[in-house]
Amino acid sequence: MFTSVNARSANAYKKVSVEAGVTQADPHKLVEMLFEGLLANVGSARAALARGDVKAKCQNVVTAVRILEEGLKGALNVAEGGELAANLLRLYDYAILRLTQANVRNDDALLKEVIDVMMPIADGWKQMGEQVGLRH
C-alpha cells in the first residue's frame, strides 16, 4: 500500500532528472531520449512477460506505443523530410503494429523484433549527433 521513503525519493529524483534533461535538451537530444525510452520500455515489457507480470507488460507496451505515436511520429516532418521521413513513418507504424500484436499474444519474439528493428535507427541517430557535435 505504501512505498518506502527511499523508493519515493528515488522516483522523485528520477522524475526531476528526466524533466531537467528534457528542458535542457536540443531537438536532436530529445529524439535520442525518445529512442532510449522506447527501447527501455520494450525491454521492460519483455522482462515483465518473462516473469508473468501481465500488468507491467501491458503498461510498458502502451508507453512504447505512445512514444512511437506521440513522440517519434510527431517529430517527423513528412512534407520536408521526403523519402526518409516517409520510410520512418512506415517503420514506426510497423513497430506499433508489432507491439500491439505482441501485447495481445504475449509474444516475446515480437517484442524482440521491435528492439531489433529500432536499435539500428536509435544507434544511427545517436552517432549522427556525435558526428555533428550535438552531444552535451
TrEMBL record:
Q: Where in the cell is it found?
A: Cytoplasm, Cytosol
Family in the record? Belongs to the FliS family.
Coiled-coil portions: none
GO terms classed as biological process:
bacterial-type flagellum assembly; bacterial-type flagellum-dependent cell motility
Any Pfam family matching the protein: FliS
Judging by the UniProt lineage, the source's domain of life is Bacteria
Asked if the keyword Membrane belongs to this entry, the reply reads no
Name the CDD domains on file. Answer: FliS
| Keyword list, A-Z | Bacterial flagellum biogenesis, Cell projection, Chaperone, Cilium, Cytoplasm, Flagellum
Specify where it is mainly localized. Answer: cytoplasm
Keyword Chaperone part of the UniProt annotation = yes
Q: Which PANTHER family match?
A: FLAGELLAR SECRETION CHAPERONE FLIS
State the protein's name.
Flagellar secretion chaperone FliS
SUPFAM superfamilies annotated for this entry?
Flagellar export chaperone FliS
- Origin organism is Rhodoferax ferrireducens
Q: Which GO terms describe its cellular component?
A: cytosol
